[in-house]
């Protein structure tokens, strides 16, 4: 008997609650740094111009693929530890979801925590670019 995974919104609310429970932005940054260590590193071959996300202040690479069960597989990496922590949260929310779920998702955990005030506009625009790229690549994969 398998249990159904909570929705992206439900899981995202847990992320928001966790981040907000850490108090100020310093506690949230520390948490992101800890998460960055849990994100698997992409190989140099996987870090190519084809996988590089445009519009990010840091270098961010995304690999989005179709899993055997038809869901979307997401792997990501960055040259910045804070961004790696954010990517770790995004992968945990979106990996193994259907393309339809991903396209419908409103990933807004940064906006609902103290991180929004601590991030520059460029960093926030990069987060938006990452979300848009994941949605676009998921749609492409679903249509294959």
TrEMBL record:
Domain spans labelled Fe-S metabolism associated: 17-136
Family: Belongs to the SufE family.
Organism name: Raoultibacter massiliensis
Protein name as catalogued: SufE family protein
């Amino acid at each position: 008997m398998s249990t159904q995974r909570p929705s992206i919104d439900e899981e995202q609310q847990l992320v928001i609650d966790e981040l907000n429970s850490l108090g100020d932005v310093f506690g949230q940054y520390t948490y992101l740094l800890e998460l960055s260590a849990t994100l698997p590193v992409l190989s140099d071959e996987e870090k190519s111009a084809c996988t590089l996300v445009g519009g990010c202040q840091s270098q961010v690479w995304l690999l989005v693929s179709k899993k055997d069960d038809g869901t979307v597989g997401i792997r990501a990496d960055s040259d910045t530890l804070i961004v790696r922590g954010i990517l770790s949260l995004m992968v945990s929310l979106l990996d193994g979801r259907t393309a339809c779920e991903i396209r419908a998702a409103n990933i807004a955990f940064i906006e609902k925590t103290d991180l929004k005030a601590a991030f520059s506009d460029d960093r926030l625009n990069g987060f938006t670019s990452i979300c848009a790229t994941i949605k676009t690549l998921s749609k492409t994969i679903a249509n294959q």
